[in-house]
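User: Could you check the structure of this?
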Amino acid sequence: MTVKSFTLAGGGKGAAVGTGATGAVTGAADAGAAGAGAGAAGAGFGAGGGLAHAAQASRLKPASFDTGRRANTTCYAPGVSRRARHLAQLLAVLFVALGLPAHAAGPVLHTYFEPDPSEDLALNATTSDGKLPAALETPSGVARAPDPLRAPRNNEPTYGGKSTPGSVDATYRIDRNTSRPDLVSYDDPFIPAVTPFKRLFAYDVVEESLELGVADKGISKLFIGGSVRSGDDQFYADMNVDLVADTPVRIPTVGPGARVLSAHTLPETPFQLQRDGAENWFIRASENKRVRLVLQLAIPREIFGSPFAPDATFVSLARFVPRMPQSIRSAGERVLEKIGVSRAITPAAAVAALVAHFRSFAPSDDRPISSGAALYEELALSKKGVCRHRAYAFIITAQALGLPTRMVRNEAHAWVEVFDARIWHRIDLGGAAERLDTERDPGQPMHAPPSDPFNWPAGSESARDLVERTMSPTGGNRPSGDRPGGDAGVGADGGVTLAPAPSAGPGAMGDAGTSSFDERPASKVEVRLGNGSVKRGEPLAVSGRIESSGDGCKGVRVDFALQHESGKLIPIQSLSAGDDGKYQGAIVVPPHLEVGEYELVVSTPGDARCGAGKGE
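Assistant: Sure, the predicted structure tokens are below.
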């Protein structure tokens, strides 16, 4: 029944923890005189008695702040805050009113102050290492800086590692699983959180094989520095990264055109940030090490929502469109003709028409049966599919028309970017999962993008709807027995779909083929693993073949689950077999699993010709 065993190593999902500037103010003693103590947030009393005057407080060094969750130090420009003055005045009144000596209860060693990011902004405060502003004022709200001193943890999601410019996830092939996932896993390392638009994989060219890839694979250095510009959105990034010696490893960003104002690692390690032609980001260092990468980012806010340039022409855009194989271009032109979009209208009007068409897709359990270019045409014209099918069909159609377009995805969602010769526009086509399995700090803001310049057809749902459901009192909680999958996968002729368990429930994979009577010949499931050990959140290369009575099972679903030593079966993902019954791709191990030994269980429900089967 079970096919392969492998070891699940470290890396995984940890709770999001917020920071704040709660103060620990230590008093200073001055025997025989009115001693005074003050911190960055207020005035205290010395052991010798007496009130710390505002004039004295303004000359004292900043104090260390302890949030009760993790230590953080906020450094202020000289000057005393209103909170310090108000506290001093209040204490003076209390001591006079009560007639108590200043030293009656001993020196005041610690006083708690509520976090006040607005004061950090007013005083131009920095984090203790001086590398980041203590807070950012954004259109989404005030964002507090991540703790600059916390070391990386083993129980948190980790980027980099095996994901490189040449790894299996650097190309993308669409699958036939057009049904809607119920629950998907997602990690957001940004503040404000950009859920679910973390930009992790971007593709800008369609290959002869119908796979998506990157036209310009050359790696160039990302500049670090500069300042915030008018019209910018600002973000912090805070993520764990597994560095691989002398190898660029993938990290996420917030969007196209983002700039790095500040970057550092803990522990400190020399590194270089890099990008390819599709603006996939990477980090490169000279040693193998897990680090915590903290960034300050800026990006033009209009990228997240603004009208496409009305003066753009197809002639001016032509040089930004990668070459497309003629057979695929012909398929795209057939789709364009049938949906009534042509170069007779402006690029701006064409983008609006394409967005309206692909936003009108709907998930379907009636899966496509075509392959190759015919599969693209079936998806585009039947309007079946979730986010990845929409984005995949959009990029082929738009590039066939002459619009520079990218497909972008992460573990939970997929969307497109379209270039108007000035900026790339992020465009959501909908089709997200029902819910997200994610964690966030409720004390930090969610990113609030500008208004969507494109209309949503009646009955369609945006990714923002997914976020609202997730952030509702019950929407983001995982019901008993539910397991997160994903939606925007990598790889094979069926691609990794990160789909949820089959509708029969968590036991469906283990129970495949147990019906009392089935006339279909049972399927034989062949499996090969690329590695015997994998970290949580990383891809595991898999390949094999599904056959029945000696013939390959075309297009059947291949389900993958992990079986714990306790016997518990954990469905994770699905692939689709190609025309010859072969499948190849990568499955992503969920980041929330405990480290340990698991058996990989592979099964198929079959189809009209091939019966259900399990790996042997």
